[in-house]
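Why run this: before we spend reagent on co-expression, it is cheaper to look at a predicted model of the complex and decide which construct boundaries make sense. The entries below are exactly what would go into the expression plan.
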Amino acid sequence: MCDKELLVGYVYGELTQTERRAFDAHLTSCAECRDEADGLRATRAHLGMWSPPGPEFGFRIVRGAAAPASAPQFRFTRAWGLAAAAVLVLAAAAAIANVEMRYGDGGLVVRTGWRQADASSTAPTPAAADSTLQADLQVILQRLGKLESAVGREPAGAGVVTAADRSGVSESDLRRRLREIVKESEARQQRELALQMAQVISDVDAARRSDMLRMQQGLMQLQGVNDAEIVKNREMWNHVLRIAQPQRDER
Amino acid sequence: MASTDEELVARSRGGDLESFNQLVLRWERPIYALAYRVIGREEDARDVAQETFLRAFRALSGFKGQAKFSSWLYRITLNLCRDWIRRERRTPIAQAPEGLDLIEMAGEATPSESIEDLVARKELGRAVAKAMATLPEEQRTAIILKEYHGLTFQEIADLLDCPLSTVKTRLYQGLTVLRKQLDQAGVESSFGNR
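The model came back. Tokens follow.
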């Protein structure tokens, strides 16, 4: 049994000089290896005939580069108008509600990302007037009413004992509770605002996708018409060449 | 004088995008050819080539120059091809056009080549592609790297993480199968006698 590793090394010219001389000597006495070496060389020659198609490439790695001149021209559509409006709404709303938006592989992600509200800097928003808010306001008004009436009954300069103390609740507790209620109310409003914004974004996104799809379909139809024309022309020229070839050969 | 791959890689790692794009320009055709011959589909091979450069760009900071840049690209390409084959769960079949387009071929003909020779060359190329598609992936990859990319046995062994003797065995077995397939297709007699 001959050494096939040596044979393949011989065919590919990857033997050392010593190995090559030894294998050459072997070939003079081994018809099987000689025949195989010739056959494999011929096969290698045929392999050279397989060439891949040569497509146009031209892809480049870019970072923050301007759009190439050949890029399709931007057209202002309904979807882009809505998107621009949504961006303005979002910018304003995000400033109020600490909304975080990301456009990732899974599509658009909106996160409320609430931070601890700063009582001194957060102003109550006038928009929400739901029943919960109304109830909260009622509680606040009742407490303020009690506080005022108690203060009114207390003679001036009565010292450190306040109406709140007399009703069993200290003034600081009352203020803390008041702040908590205001904060809860704001949080609820912000959450609702975020949900509404997410809905707006979703609608805009759907409209954008639909517009893009329509544009793509239009382009594909155009491309199809062009391709059909090209194929027809090619077939015609091929036909002409085929007819012309025998005539040229005859001459 | 043109910069070497190593110089371009060093500049790319320093943030010079244009240097990396020079590497893309230099290697896009060999990488595409490798992908095309391994998976046999034009569009998918294009995607694999593009993805290879994107991955290389992203991983450039991790490339310390232990291997040649080209070997590193080949490795990424082959991994992507393997993923493609696994994902598609099919044996690569080289795409072959239904009919030969004489107009397109006329542009490829060498000045001394007649249309008849050109057609024969194209048909032989198709027969080779068909025969290659019947080989197991390991043998096909070894032959592609050797025949079309000129890698040495040792470079192929390093790239495929296998012993030198395995590379030689794969090449021998692959070439032997191809020889038989081409014989059966009548290639040896028709082309060999030309």
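The longest strand of chain A covers residues 100-104. Chain A touches chain B at residues 4-5, 7-9, 11-12, 14, 39-40, 42-44, 46-55, 57, 59-63, 234, 237-238, 241-242, 245 (CB under 8 Å). Bring this page to Monday's planning discussion.
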